[in-house]
Amino acid sequence: MAHQEIVVIRVNEVNADDWLERGRKWWKASAARIIDCAELLVLDKNDTVKAVTRVAGVEKDLDEGSGRISIIPSDLPAKHEELIGKKIRRPNSRNPVVYLRDIEVIS
Questions:
Q1: Given this model, what pLDDT does residue 67 score?
Q2: Which residue from 33, 51, 74, 88 lies 20 to 30 Å from 25 (Cα-Cα)?
Q3: What is the pairing mode between strands 6-10 and 39-43?
């Protein structure tokens, strides 16, 4: 099996009530690429992992027609749950959505 990418979304906040809910909705991203990803990691603005889930699917923004998608989380446990609370290296990109093959923990 090929090594799947992980979609990493940085939310420009430090305190959110529900990190997973905030991180999984509505993003300009390729639905096909998200479907091919194994997991979703939600980071705060300091690149600290706040939520992790497996990707079950995507939902299109049909109501607004914005072209944005929402990531549907899985009920199954995520492989990288131990990363919650850890800071990871993320590429220097202004885009909040990036894709990684390998995770590097900084602290």
A1: 85
A2: 88
A3: parallel
Distance, in Å, from the CA atom of 73 to the CA atom of 86, rounded to the nearest integer, reads 21
Q: Any idea how long the chain is?
A: 107
The tokens for 65 are 């027609």
pTM above 0.85? yes
Spatial separation of the C-alpha atoms in residues 13 and 54, rounded to whole Å: 22
Phi and psi at 45, nearest 5°, equal -70, -10
Q: Residue 97's closest CA among 7, 4, 6, 21?
A: 7
Rounded to whole angstroms, the Cα distance separating 57 from 34 reads: 8
Please give the backbone phi and psi of residue 36, each rounded to the nearest 5 degrees, phi first.
-75, -10
What are the C-alpha distances in Å from 88 to residues 10, 25, 45, 100?
11, 21, 12, 11
Q: Work out the burial of residue 67: count CB atoms within 10 Å of its CB; fewer than 13 is exposed, 13-18 middle, 19 or more buried.
A: exposed
pLDDT in tens, 18-31: 999 999 999 999 99
